[in-house]
Amino acid sequence: MQYDGMIFRPPSEADSILLQVTVGCSHNKCTFCEMYKAKRFQIKKDEAILKDIDYAATHFRFMDRLFICDGDALIVPQARLIKYLRLIKEKLPWVKRVGVYANTKSIGMKSVEELRELKAHGLGIAYMGLETGDDITLKAINKGATADRMIEMGKKIKASGIKLSITVLLGIGGRERSMVHASETGRVLSQIDPDYVGALTLMLTPGTSLYKDHTEGKFPVLEANEMLKELGVMIANTSLSNGLFHANHASNYLPIRAKFPEDKNRTLRMIEDALNGKISLKPEHLRGL
I need a surface site. Which of 26, 45, 97, 128 has the fewest CB within 10 A? Predict the structure, then answer.
């Protein structure tokens, strides 16, 4: 496979074929993210993409999921995406699900009918980074969308029948807006009602403006117990009709995998037990991005 730069994918796509269709992220302005800073956004040429599909057809017959990279490949024009999905179905018929990153910009460029067409050709899941439901924090981290826009675009994916996985980021509001961030994120998640929620814990990386703010004393990083309290408030304010809420990423202090609504109260009790010292938290040296 021909990869341009480092490739990133959701944790749940660890065992997927990684097909790079775009390079970088079309937004690439979030203050906390350095994943695509070294890349200038572009859509790769058909020749390279088709060559990779042929390679995967020969070498990855044991892998039944495929993830289309990079940052927000849903932004690729509809006709080209349909062409790639058709080729995947034709040349990799054993692939059961195709996934893609999406943001409000790329979702907004597709109609519900176009999204349904993508689903009919094999697109099974879209991953959207909400990070927070707090408008002030969204603006501060330069996310490029309001909470209302996040809700609108999340519901649009849901209306198409494509599964929706949303990422939220513990600690992104800092200490001052921690509880507002938590409660507002729960509110937005409840309105979207995604199939999956993945809560990650903020880990600052050099090269980002948020890291610079932290080193200059402008942005405090929450302590482990503060992150856990934030997670508890977020979960308490989240209602999902039939979804999975995960906080089992390597960055998290307390691994959680809960099915909503039935596991919600049990999960809140677990967080309370951890805050009271009855459950040990992951030590710092075992955490990772």
Answer: 45
Q: Structural domain boundaries of the chain?
A: 11-283
Spell out where the chain has E strands.
17-20, 22-23, 42-43, 65-69, 97-102, 123-131, 163-170, 196-201, 243-246, 257-260
- Report the DSSP beta bridge partners of residue 20: 69
Which region among 29-33, 131-135, 162-166, 198-202 has the lowest average model confidence (pLDDT)? 29-33
CA distance 213 to 195: 34
- Which tokens in the block code for residue 195? 């199939």
Q: Which token pair is 73?
A: 């490949």
CATH for the stretch 11-283: 3.80.30.20
CA distance 98 to 211: 34
Asked whether the beta carbons of 125 and 162 are under 8 A apart, the reply is yes
DSSP bridge partners of 23: 42
Inter-residue contact 133 to 187 (CB < 8 Å): yes
Model pLDDT, residue 162: 98
Amino acid 14 reads A
Is the pLDDT confidence value at 206 over 80?
Answer: yes
Distances (CA, A) of 57 to 19, 35, 85, 159, 233: 12, 28, 13, 32, 46
What is the per-residue pLDDT for 25?
A: 86
Please say whether the dihedral angle defined by the alpha carbons of residues 266, 272, 274 and 279, taken in this order, is positive or negative: negative
